[in-house]
Write a structure and sequence with these properties.
Layout (H helix, E strand, L loop, with lengths): L9 H15 L6 H8 L3 H13 L3 E8 L7 E6 L5 E8 L2 E8 L3 E9 L6 H17 L5 E8 L24 H10 L13 E5 H12 L7 E7 L4 E7 L2 E2 L30 H4 L2 H8 L9 H9 L5 H22 L3 E6 H8 L1 H11 L10 E3 L5 H16 L8
Parallel strand pairs: 3-6, 6-7, 8-11, 11-12
Antiparallel strand pairs: 1-2, 3-4, 4-5, 8-9, 9-10
Helix pairs in contact: 1-3, 2-3, 4-5, 6-13, 8-9, 8-10, 9-11, 10-11, 10-12
């Protein structure tokens, strides 16, 4: 059944999406700030916020936010409780699922081991059921479900390429399979009748999360580089939008060569960033072996913080610096965010990494790009939530659908 709401004037209706996006990302905490950001009159801003409030997406506190000069302004906040979306992320060793509100907030999170059978139909079915359990247990209306995958995902057909961590055939139609499994799950009476679904690469979604809610705020050209359990991923956000290329496969930074005589990469080449700066590479440089009974990434992060591994850290940092310099020369970002193991490498040798990048960039130290640690916890999940929210950030009135 449709949710009743007040219709905004034509001009205000076109501003609903931009207004919600500003409130969602924390850029418009008051009606005055929203008025300035949208460059509209107070009356128009009032009509827009009234419509968003009627849709159940925000709350308007008429008690003035004050202290400054001029007329005090009404406070704007995201509705609580308001609607929610489901977000999930596949890892090499497990599945994470969350119920997420606007504002990058994860309300409830579940972490599950991978099922014994990781064929796409079974694994995506397990993800759908885990999300359905969260939806049935929530009093919020659920509007969408998005999934972050640790492999490239083509656009617009949504097939998974090089799914090395799972028993998937090349070109598995993950978008179609995921939509089918979600459609067959019991999401409870408060979920949207036909729940929109989406899938995307986890590095891309982490970059989106960092740009909207973390270390990438206000960057025009944000480059994110990360290393998880194995391999290296990257993503680029340009003017608030992910750059995914002609078919969704852009920014495969892991296959940038940083040492032609280096370690073999699963792609068949040697010395890729994938093979030179991931957890396996750090253990190899330190001449140590990880505990096979523990997840690899936490062990590598501990190793990066171990003073006795300083030489190994410097070796891997130098390779990472080579890769980042090449990317800077090609992409000219105004900020680099590092996450996963790379965050710990940055913490262990910040000056060395910055110097390596600056010395190999075309513009040298005068064009130094800030390299900062990621800030968003569970960024892949938060990014998946962003993907699920995107239709409603574009058109908030879609919330009123069945």
């Amino acid at each position: 059944m449709s949710t009743p709401h007040r219709t905004a004037p034509d001009r205000g209706r076109a501003l609903l999406g931009p207004a919600l996006r500003l409130i969602h990302t924390g850029q418009a905490p008051t009606r005055s700030a929203l008025t300035g950001a949208l460059d509209v009159t107070r009356a128009t801003a009032g009509a827009v916020t009234g419509e968003l409030e009627a849709l159940g997406l925000i709350s308007v506190d008429s008690r003035p936010a004050g202290g400054g000069r001029g007329r005090p302004s009404h406070r704007l906040a995201l509705a609580d409780p308001g609607p929610a979306v489901l977000a999930a992320q596949l890892h090499a060793d497990g599945v994470s699922v969350a119920l997420a509100a606007l504002g990058g907030r994860l309300l409830e999170t579940a972490h599950l081991p991978l099922p014994a059978d990781t064929a796409p139909e079974r694994l995506l079915g397990a993800v759908a059921e885990a999300g359905a359990t969260l939806a049935r247990g929530s009093r919020r209306r659920v509007l969408g479900f998005a999934l972050a995958l640790p492999n490239p995902v083509t656009e617009p057909d949504g097939t998974a390429l090089a799914a090395l961590h799972f028993d998937w055939p090349a070109g598995a139609p993950v978008a179609e399979l995921f939509a089918d499994r979600v459609a067959g799950a019991d999401l409870g009476p408060r979920a949207r009748t036909v729940l929109p679904t989406a899938v995307a690469n986890d590095a891309n979604l982490a970059a989106l999360a960092e740009h909207r809610h973390g270390a990438g705020r206000e960057a025009r050209h944000l480059l994110l580089v990360t290393s998880g359990h194995r391999g290296v991923g990257g993503a680029l956000v340009v003017d608030g939008r992910l750059h995914t290329g002609s078919s969704g496969l852009a920014l495969e930074v892991g296959h940038l060569t940083v040492d032609p005589l280096g370690r073999p990469c699963p792609c068949g080449n040697r010395g890729c960033l994938n093979a030179e700066t991931d957890p396996d590479a750090l253990f190899a440089a330190a001449k140590r072996r990880p505990d096979p009974d523990r997840p690899l990434l936490p062990q590598a992060r501990e190793l990066a913080r171990d003073p006795e591994s300083a030489d190994a850290v410097e070796h891997v940092v130098d390779r990472l610096g080579l890769g980042l310099a090449g990317l800077v020369n090609i992409l000219n970002p105004d900020r680099i965010v590092l996450s996963g193991l790379h965050l710990d490498l940055l913490a262990a040798a910040p000056d060395r990494l910055a110097a390596q990048v600056a010395e190999r960039c075309l513009w040298g130290r005068s064009g130094r790009v800030p390299i900062v640690p990621a800030q968003v916890a569970h960024a892949g999940l938060v990014g998946a939530a962003e993907l699920a929210w995107e239709p409603y950030l574009e058109d908030p009135q879609a919330v009123a659908g069945s």
